[in-house]
Amino acid sequence: MKINKLSIAVLFLSGSVYYAQETKQDTISKEKKIEGVVIQGSSNKKTETAVLGEQKKAIIQKQAVSAEEISRKGISNVEQGLTKVTGITTVEGRGLFVRGLEERYNYLLINGLGSPSNNPFQKIIALKQFPTDVVGKLNIYKTFNSNLYGDFAGATFDIETLTIDKPFTKVEFGIGINTVSTFKDGFKVSEGADGFNGYLGLNSRDKKLPSAVRNARPSNYRFSANESLTQFKDSWNVDNVKSVPNTSIGFTTVQKMKAGENGNLGFLFSLNQSSEYSYKEGAKNQFKDFGGIINLNNDLLRKQYNYQIESSALLGLGYKNRGTTVNLNAMYLQNVNNIIEDYYGYKNNQIQNKDTGFFRTNQQDLSRFLNIQLTASQKLGERHQIKAGGSYVINNYQQPDRKILEGSRLDSNGNLLPDNQLLLAYGGNNIIRQYLDVNSRFYGSAYGEYSVFLGEKGDKKDFPMQLSIGYNGFADLRKTSYRFLFGKPNGTAGQSFIIDKDNPQSQFNQDLSNNRFFFQEETDASNFFTSMYQFVNAGYINFNYKPSETWDILIGGRYENDMTLIRYSEQGAAKKTNLDKERNLFLPSLSIKKALNTKNNLRFSFSKTVTRPVLIETMEISYINPDNETIKGNPDIKLSDNYNFDLKWEYFPTNKEMFAVNLFAKRINNAIERSFVSSGDANGVTVTFYNAKKADLAGIELEGIISLGRLSESLDKFTLGANATFMYTDVERSEDQLKLEQPNPNFYNGELRKRGLQGASPYTINADLKYEVKTKNNLSRTLSLVYNVSGSKIYAVGTSGSDNFYEKPFHQLDFVYQEQITKNWNIKLGVRNILNNKYRILLGDKSYYNVQTNGINTYTDYFRGVNFNMTVGYTF
User: Fold this and answer.
1) Which of 202, 276, 539, 856 is most buried, most CB within 10 Å of its CB?
2) In this protein, which residues make up the domain named TonB-dependent receptor plug (predicted)?
């Protein structure tokens, strides 16, 4: 079955995966009795206590969010769960930031196997699409070990799927309202998007590139009237609806049975689907240099309507028999986001249109992701173990038939039209259809590892030495197609007419029939198609040595071969350019843990790693937005080389409490940064990407989990968890950046100021206060208050005499109540974003040129609204 025929379906097999990232043995004989307690807790990996115990014992610095914590905090997806970890925060539409570093510095594993992104604008899967019902634990590695992929600077996330421990069947229903978006009259959605086909994502079939040009190179093809009427299946009309509450439904069943005398067979099946209406209103401006003066090039009010449906289907099978474990894993994720954006104001410095300009974008973002995994491990006696796994992934991303409509809110006599009407003329850029496809030709990931335990146990439980030799790697082959079709006048240029902007299709059909206008493709035949081939193959060796009961040393080396080929064409070029990049990398790692006593650990780690760019950052593509802001990849972008240092002290007063202080530093050579530059066509600006020469980072992480019963017996039901990261960064610009950022000496003669790393936040703070009590039926009741904020960071580096653009702090406060009402029924109530801060990106106040914008320094801003959610679950 082709991937584009799938809607909700497919498989997800789940099971416990063992791999070399973890070293779980403890060497302290004095902790033998305490170890007994930890072992009992660890038999259920879902508990917060078990996760904390594992963090204490591991040789590498690893943090985790347990299934218990996921449930307690009302976490519905993986992205929310990871933001509860020290130094991690989520940023609007751009994924997770770790230690203030952009998402490009992170990497994702699913059960130890590499996973590609299903979105060219993000480094990893949008983890909010990943439901937590089937998650056993979220692991976060903030220090590198040689059997992790070398693409590491912020963190590697590993999603462990639900361990099949005991049978259960669970059904959940959720409903939520938003103070800004829910029950809003006149909520705009594409025609039919909120119907059954839209709910399943099947309406994308009507948005395909027309058959007349689908399988042909662009050739300025002109559509006949009949072709224009029959081959474009999707309508320009927009429905005005009343946005209903957001909903979710989930079904999960886990079954376990005997298989032979000593074997167990586990089965998991899960279906999840959710729908959400969201509305945002605020500025979307643009700043540009006009001869030594920074002016507003765009002054726009944007109204954005999102109707989003997320679906997943999971099916699982796992077999375990003494030393043998086999798991077949597969998962399918689908995200359909229907977006209407209305812009009011002027662009391209056309100030005369400030109160009359209008344009609309009507688009659908569609991603489909299928991941099938097979993993196995086999113990050979007491000393030997073999592990292996492989995955096959199909991931497709589309923006099919992205429609752009532009006109005036004034009639031909200069009078303001009613809000539902628009003065339109065929020609120019007033009617555009865009088709973006980023499709996977193939993605495969694999690993294999052999481990041998050396030395004699003696009185200790564990062998003193472990040697592991392994391989992991991936192949990622993708192709990108980007095409444009324009509405062109048929001898009627300049003739204007009034349309109903929400229902223009009937007028368009009539004018097509009367040959008043036609559609024609105007895609450049040389650069509509690009492709990327990437092969990463790595061998590694790890040696774990415990010379005494208090020392644990892990030394590793990784050799990684990275071969990347990018094929693209310059505009108008007759032949494609083959950009061949190959690097051979040696990536050492060292981790040392010293147990000062049974409650205190001291850790040190060093490693060298690399950072690979996000797909859009390296692909030769110019992604055009209707406000003339273009996102352009840079195929000459280089990998970053990272040198990482960590020194950490941990204190575990009890098995439920901990305190930690971590000092860290990084040198990032060729750090990748986002920049604003003036567009080559003199209109608008371009977002593009450059390497800095180097960036230096230094910071401290503080973390604590404490029972407030220490302060007073009356507070013994309260637990306070808090963590904070404070960081300093400094960038040395590359030659390319110096040319872009250096002001014209005719307008400014000073030196460039020092600045920090783009995307790096000076601080990140997370905190949660938990109240937990047992009811009279010995069932759990939990209340949690969760807070998160990160400091002002550079969203994009400014050029042409302007300051940088800064993403301002966003304070988020959430409240979650959960209670197990009976043995079968449970309820969750949540209030998210209680403070309802305004999200803002601002132009800094230290531009090199004069700024004449009437005090406006906002690039974009909006309110998210407060979310109220209720989920009711029944477990059989």
Assistant:
1) 276
2) 59-153
